[in-house]
């Protein structure tokens, strides 16, 4: 047995490049898969920490029925009545980009927070002087501490969240005398009803943010899996070649007394050893990939969902064990065909052994029929299914179905090309290309998937960018935006600005629950700025007049789709419901939003500060006005923002949001290129019996090499042509089905011929580069190597 | 003289040092004649054939084909001679697997720019291939494949046919039939034939016979 194993392993010593390709393919496949899993695990851990920050996943609460704040007097009354409740104030500090939680440590239920308030010293520190603000170390490092209590760090807190004493929080959030909700201590409570306007809410069984981000993580997983599958094509190619090259040796080993079972055992052992080694390399690479991508993923999650995810990676045993498992399972899957052949290897060589590269046409037809069935399933799911599962199911069926159909399509096209060709060499070229298709089919399928993913995701991002830029132009119509520090300063600002601008448009906003989710209400002045520019998707006639008259409100697209609203439906708000009179697009906002007349907003949310204004002014005068404003009022940096800066900032957030997608796209295409290279290298060794006779009949080696080069480019070009409609279909599914289900907005699809042409060029270049070594090898092959074909072939 | 080999030497590097396969070979072949090349395995028969076809280069000496010195000719010139002047029949047939019988038969003639459909059809009929024209090599028996290989060579009307044990993979009856056909068709086209064979019986049917032993003509 040991002799048999050393005979098997000696093959790799003689073919180190082949071994390197096998290891590289498996390591890359494992790297991208486990990298994506590491990112997902990190994000989920962050969600769990966020969910557990005040034990809302296990502690009951008392909240206001209309979603508004709870008066502090009610809390006092409840305590006096025997209720074991603890007050919490929660809100955002926009200037610090911080979610602030104020607690009362003396009444807080046990185990509600990870912050160490166990000892008297900790407690005294927490309550001392100007208070203490507990933060995650990462959040603390990126925070300007001015205007905040002394900072303390606690790694158990989620990123972007600060914990402090309730009094401090009320002061910072301007919520004196008001509370957000009350935590109910476990145990017996008075057997009396709650005062009117208050309700008990059971602990959440899961976090909203985890549910919201599921689609994003599924997306990442899908990309990771695609890259893993593409990597396995390389492994399949390398193992297939090794099997073919060792066919004679395997037969000899069998003839020398190794049973088929023993032989299988040896080959399996060899494969698992290789998989273990490559898997460990892959996990190391995966950690690097995850560490490199995590900051961008964190930015994406913050931008799209408002979810805070830590930017540093921790190693989890489950993660690397799963990575190794995937490497092993992937290797066995990729080697399945070769193992099956080994099991059925006849002891004596048949007179005309089948070339490894030649699969039967019948199996390609079967594969094509299966692919067509999957395409039909995809169409059915997308046409009749609803929600994310149908969207992703349709997407998967579309991609796999198209990939399965590709080899048959190439066989038919090359057959047609051969029938239409005139010259003998051209005819041979087509016929020979046709014969290469089965051997290259896996690599070409990988290329198809990678190209389609690039086209689809690229089209989606470009469509999104184009729509987003146009939408920003509409939404950010004012030339300048100014924020006052106080109500008094705001009044003086307004008076000073009135004669110096075309219009001063107050921007009023208040946080309020909308259909049970945290949302925001905006007050908007009736002005041509909005009437002419606001991006409306649908509206009743005279929508602006109705809003100005307080007869209705507008909702953003997310809310409209999530609640399946129709024009005329009522939206519950403090102070009574209002009907929906219009819907506007609101890309990139994870929260539901409504828009109403400023008077209506102030009536319903009387504490809303009137601090922000949009200024309409001649664009040429905007910069001078901003300077004059700063000088007159001594406003701090960031208080006056011009439209261009705001747009640039928004676009920067946008680009960062899709940086991960772009990186995964490039990596997947790179692996597909490597799969192509591995397959071409494999085939180049097996093709000599087909090439040698043509050489013997008078074609020079460089010419044969040139034809091989052209053949690779032709197959890549045909694959690219198949990838174009597939990629555009993918983009459509992402924009019209997946995005709507995942984010709540639908984007118009735009096709960018320039981008497609560039990707086509890159694909052909990648195919050309992948074929360079095999082609140069053929151009320079020693005649003796070709002559061996005639002397002792097979 | 169509083919002349003068003091030709060929040596291969092996793990155990250089191995001289041909050692000062002198040989000539006139148009319209046939020559059998016999000898034991490893005596250099196939190497000699490869040098005559310009598939390989001699280390010393001179190989002249149709007035061209192959020893000094570049690869394109030698490729041109293989395309237009020489036809090879291999022991393993070496048909082009991606082309059907009809395309294989016409392949070299079309490469040489001498495709004559009537002649190809006549060859196919004589070789008994007319009913097999749409089949692919893997669908043919050994004898059928060798007949296609012979047809492919003769369809191009080469001046020199080089055959490397063309019946070595066939049973005796099929081998005899194939050789009969080849000799008849070579004679009809006026080509010269240089055939490597192990069989003294087959060698006796050609005009001349040369035996190689340890790289020398004996």
Could you describe the 3D structure shown?
The complex is a heterodimer of chains A (794) and B (218). Chain A is an alpha+beta fold and 794 residues long. In chain A, strand 16 and strand 17 (578-584) form a beta hairpin. The radius of gyration of chain A is 33 Å and the shape is elongated. In chain B, the strands form two sheets. Chain B has a six-stranded mixed β-sheet, with helices on both faces. In chain B, helix 5 packs parallel to helix 6 (172-189). Classes of the chains: A alpha+beta (794), B alpha/beta (218).
Biggest interface, and residues per chain? A-B, 34 and 36 residues
What summary fits the major beta sheet of chain A?
10 strands, mixed
Helix residue percentage of chain B: 25-40%
Mean pLDDT of chain A: 81
Shape of chain B: globular
Number of helices of chain A: 26
Give a short account of the largest sheet of chain B.
Answer: 6 strands, mixed
H/E element string of chain B?
EEEHEEHEHHHEHEHEE
Number of strands of chain B: 10
Could you tell me how far the N terminus lies from the C terminus of chain A, measured between alpha carbons in angstroms? 27 Å
Would you spell out the secondary-structure blueprint of this structure?
The complex is a heterodimer of chains A (794) and B (218).
Chain A: H1 2-14, H2 16-52, E1 61-64, E2 70-71, H3 72-80, E3 85-93, E4 98-103, H4 120-127, E5 132-135, H5 137-141, E6 150-153, E7 161-165, H6 166-173, E8 178-179, E9 181-184, E10 198-201, H7 208-245, H8 247-255, H9 260-305, H10 317-334, H11 336-343, H12 361-384, H13 387-420, H14 424-475, E11 480-483, H15 487-497, E12 503-514, E13 517-524, H16 528-533, E14 536-539, H17 543-548, E15 553-556, H18 557-562, E16 570-571, E17 578-584, E18 593-596, H19 598-604, E19 612-616, H20 619-633, E20 640-642, H21 643-657, H22 659-686, H23 688-696, H24 701-742, H25 753-779, H26 783-792
Parallel strand pairs in A: 4-7, 5-6, 13-18, 15-17
Antiparallel strand pairs in A: 1-9, 1-10, 2-8, 3-4, 3-9, 5-7, 11-19, 11-20, 12-13, 12-19, 14-17, 15-18, 16-17
Helix pairs in contact in A: 1-9, 2-7, 2-9, 2-10, 2-22, 7-10, 7-14, 7-22, 9-10, 9-21, 12-13, 13-14, 13-24, 14-21, 14-22, 14-24, 14-25, 22-25, 23-26, 24-25
Chain B: E1 3-14, E2 17-29, E3 34-39, H1 45-52, E4 60-65, E5 68-69, H2 75-84, E6 86-89, H3 101-112, H4 117-126, H5 142-155, E7 160-164, H6 172-189, E8 192-196, H7 200-203, E9 208-213, E10 216-217
Parallel strand pairs in B: 3-8, 3-9, 6-7, 7-8
Antiparallel strand pairs in B: 1-2, 1-4, 4-5, 9-10
Helix pairs in contact in B: 3-5, 4-5, 5-6
């Amino acid at each position: 047995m040991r002799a048999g194993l050393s005979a098997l392993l000696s093959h790799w010593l003689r073919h180190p490049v082949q071994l390197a390709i096998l290891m590289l393919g498996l390591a890359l496949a494992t790297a991208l898969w486990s990298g994506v899993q590491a990112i997902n695990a990190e994000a989920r851990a962050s969600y769990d920490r966020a969910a557990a920050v005040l034990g809302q996943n296990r502690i009951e609460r008392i909240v206001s029925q209309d979603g508004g704040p709870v008066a502090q007097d009610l809390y006092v009354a409840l305590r006096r009545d025997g209720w074991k409740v603890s007050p919490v104030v929660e809100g955002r500090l926009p200037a610090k980009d911080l979610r602030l939680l104020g607690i009362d440590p003396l009444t807080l239920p046990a185990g509600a927070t990870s912050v160490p308030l166990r000892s008297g010293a900790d407690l005294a520190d927490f309550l001392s002087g100007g208070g203490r603000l507990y933060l995650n170390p990462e959040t603390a490092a990126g925070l300007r501490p001015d205007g905040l209590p002394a900072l303390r760090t606690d790694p158990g807190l989620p990123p972007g969240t600060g914990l402090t004493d309730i009094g401090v929080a009320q002061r910072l959030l301007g919520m004196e005398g008001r509370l957000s909700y009350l935590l109910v201590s476990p145990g017996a409570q008075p057997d009396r009803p709650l005062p009117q306007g208050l309700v008990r809410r059971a602990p959440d069984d899961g976090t909203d943010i985890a549910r919201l981000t599921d689609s994003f993580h599924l997306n990442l997983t899908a990309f990771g899996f695609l890259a893993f599958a593409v990597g396995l094509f390389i492994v399949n190619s390398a193992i297939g070649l090794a099997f073919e090259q060792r066919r004679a040796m395997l037969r000899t080993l069998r003839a020398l007394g190794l049973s088929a079972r023993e032989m299988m055992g040896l080959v399996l052992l060899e494969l698992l050893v290789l998989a273990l080694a490559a898997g460990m390399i892959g996990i190391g690479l995966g950690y690097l990939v995850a560490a490199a991508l995590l900051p961008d993923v964190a930015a994406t999650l913050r931008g799209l969902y408002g979810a805070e995810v830590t930017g540093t990676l921790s190693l989890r045993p489950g993660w690397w064990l799963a990575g190794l498992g995937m490497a092993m399972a992937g290797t066995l899957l990729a080697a399945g065909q070769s193992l099956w052949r080994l099991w059925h290897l006849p002891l004596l060589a048949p007179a005309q052994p089948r070339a490894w590269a030649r699969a039967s046409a019948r199996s390609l037809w079967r594969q094509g029929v299966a692919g067509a069935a999957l395409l039909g399933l995809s169409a059915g799911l997308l046409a009749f299914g609803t929600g994310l599962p149908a969207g992703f199911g349709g997407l998967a069926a579309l991609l796999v179905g198209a990939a399965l159909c590709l080899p048959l399509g190439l066989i038919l096209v090359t057959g047609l090309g051969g029938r239409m060709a005139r010259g003998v060499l051209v005819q041979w070229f087509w016929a020979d290309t046709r014969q290469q298709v089965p051997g290259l089919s896996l690599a070409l399928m990988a290329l198809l998937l990678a190209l389609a993913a690039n086209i689809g995701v690229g089209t989606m991002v470009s469509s999104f960018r184009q729509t987003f830029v146009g939408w920003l132009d509409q939404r950010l119509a004012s030339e300048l935006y100014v924020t006052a520090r106080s109500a008094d300063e705001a009044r003086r600002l307004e008076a000073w600005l009135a004669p110096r601008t075309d219009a001063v448009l107050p921007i009023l906003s208040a946080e309020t629950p909308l259909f049970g989710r945290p949302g925001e209400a905006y007050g908007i002045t009736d002005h041509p700025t909005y009437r002419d520019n606001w991006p409306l998707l649908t509206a009743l006639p005279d929508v602006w007049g109705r809003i100005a008259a307080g007869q209705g409100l507008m909702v953003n697209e997310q809310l409209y789709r999530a609640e399946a609203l129709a024009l005329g439906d009522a939206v519950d708000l403090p102070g009574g419901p209002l009907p929906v009179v219009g819907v506007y697009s609101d890309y990139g906002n994870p929260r539901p939003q409504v828009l109403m007349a400023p008077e209506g907003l102030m009536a319903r949310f009387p504490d809303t500060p009137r601090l922000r204004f949009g200024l309409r002014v001649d664009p040429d005068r905007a910069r001078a006005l901003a300077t004059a404003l700063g000088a007159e009022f001594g406003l701090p940096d960031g208080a006056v923002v011009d439209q261009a800066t705001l747009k640039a900032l928004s676009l920067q957030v946008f680009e960062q949001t899709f940086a991960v997608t772009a990186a995964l796209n490039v990596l997947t295409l790179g692996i597909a290129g490597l799969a192509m290279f591995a397959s071409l290298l494999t085939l180049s060794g097996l093709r000599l019996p087909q090439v040698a006779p043509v050489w013997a009949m008078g074609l020079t080696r460089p010419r044969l090499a040139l034809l091989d080069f052209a053949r690779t480019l032709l197959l890549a070009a045909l694959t690219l042509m198949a990838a174009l409609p597939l990629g555009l279909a993918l983009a459509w599914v992402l924009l019209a089905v997946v995005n709507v289900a995942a984010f709540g907005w639908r984007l118009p699809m735009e096709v960018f011929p320039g981008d497609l042409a560039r990707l086509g060029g890159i694909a052909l270049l990648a195919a050309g580069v992948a074929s360079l070594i095999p082609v140069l090898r053929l151009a320079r092959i020693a005649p003796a190597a070709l002559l061996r074909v005639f002397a002792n072939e097979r | 003289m169509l083919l002349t080999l003068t003091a030709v030497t060929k040596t291969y590097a092996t793990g155990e040092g250089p191995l001289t396969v041909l050692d000062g070979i002198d040989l000539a072949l006139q148009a319209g004649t046939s020559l059998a090349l016999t000898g034991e395995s490893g005596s250099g028969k196939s190497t000699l054939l490869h040098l005559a076809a310009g598939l390989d280069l001699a280390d010393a000496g001179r190989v002249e084909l149709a007035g061209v010195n192959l020893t000094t000719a570049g690869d394109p010139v030698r490729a041109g001679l293989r395309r237009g002047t020489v036809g090879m029949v291999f022991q393993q047939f070496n048909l082009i697997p991606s082309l059907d019988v009809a395309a294989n038969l016409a392949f070299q003639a079309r490469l040489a720019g001498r495709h004559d459909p009537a002649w190809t059809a006549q060859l196919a009929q004589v070789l008994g291939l007319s009913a097999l024209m749409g089949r692919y090599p893997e669908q043919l028996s050994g004898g059928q494949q060798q007949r296609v290989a012979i047809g492919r060579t003769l369809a191009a009307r080469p001046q020199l046919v080089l055959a490397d044990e063309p019946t070595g993979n066939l049973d005796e009856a099929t081998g005899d039939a194939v050789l009969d056909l080849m000799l008849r068709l070579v004679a009809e086209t006026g080509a010269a034939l240089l055939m490597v064979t192990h069989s003294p019986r087959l060698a006796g049917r050609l005009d001349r016979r040369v035996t190689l032993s340890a790289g020398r003509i004996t």
